[in-house]
Amino acid sequence: MNSSATRPLSEIAAEISRDWHRPYFGAIPYLHAMEELQTVDDHYFLDDAKSIVMYFLANASTWKGETARRIKAELKTQIAMRSDMISAAESIGSHSDPSRRNRPKAGRGEI
Q: Domain residue spans in the chain?
């Protein structure tokens, strides 16, 4: 797999299920949700996939071994890539309208 490709979360969840035979009860709902997701930009009902992955990682501390380390790193990378993309988009968006730069902010009683 090249560095620009990311595996679908459902595929990662399947590998986790194959490797982690007795998952911690707190990780199970997040693992099940990940089975239905493709990317960290997706939603599972009202929850965003990024939060689901982060909650899974928070509850996966008892999952040990080489596979666990590799997959946890892969999930963290996917979250970081999404955060970097959002930061870049926000940065571009804040500089796209020159009329908004250096405009004084309205105070009390001002329009």
A: 27-91
What does pTM read for this prediction?
0.75
Check the CA dihedral 39-41-47-53 and report its sign. positive
Q: Is 4 exposed, middle or buried (0-12, 13-18, 19+ CB in 10 A)?
A: exposed
Closest CA to 60 of 50, 48, 73: 73
Q: What single-letter amino acid sits at 74?
A: E
3-class DSSP state of 47? strand
The tens place of each residue's pLDDT in the chain, 111 residues long, gives: 444 579 999 999 999 999 999 999 999 999 999 999 999 999 999 999 999 999 999 999 999 999 999 999 999 999 999 777 777 777 787 655 555 555 555 555 555
Q: How many CA atoms lie within 13 A of 5 on its CB side?
A: 4
